[in-house]
Amino acid sequence: MKKKNIILAILLAFASIQLQAQRIVTDESSIDLGQILFRDPITAVYNLKNGGDKPLVIHDVKKSCGCTSVSFPHRAILAGEKFKVEVTYDAKLMGHFDKLIGLYSNASENPTILRLKGVVVSDYVGFSGAYPFQIGDLKLDVNDIEFDDVNRGDRPVAQIHVFNAGRSEILPQVMHLPPYLTANVSPSRLAAGQAGIISLTLDSKKLRNFGLSQTSLYLGMYPGDKVAPEKEISVSSVLLPAFDETETSSI
Asked: How far apart are CA 170 and CA 106, in angstroms?
């Protein structure tokens, strides 16, 4: 267990460095599988590319957990060539998981980090409501988010339930996020006919002013999708002023 913790710490330490240092490129280094069934192994496929000008060789793989197995090319990958890495999770433990895989190659001394997360459940929990709004092939239950009566320091979360009504896989992208909002899409890939959840977290400490703040987000269908008016989701928040409890008011 101690050895695994050391490996995990090393991978995390290198995670921020490798973004500039390595030449293995990808649009999606982190995959959220969403809900997966207990004891039903699942495989995530990472689409990568040799972004360097010389052949690439992956010579070692480090994992933060023995619960994952990794399949990768054992041959030289030509410059500019696309390739795949497959990571299988055994799903033998219930609850949330967040795993890291480090790919060591001749491209850099630092590993390329891949991330796999999700939640293992005994039964799928689905959304029983309606999807009255649509952006592209995605149907949504809401397109207007309101964070009301927020106190400084709060981190409220709002959810948008989405459904892929198209015939092709979608990788939902939340675009044009202001500094005080973060977004998580689960699962990060939606197959045709599959539902998911977009969670928006408001960091009230990063709101500049008290009172009403308004912004617009845009929902894309794939990495690199463009912002357009028909993809807009409105978000508003109301930050309450901090009153000194020692103050008294006179009538």
From this structure: 33
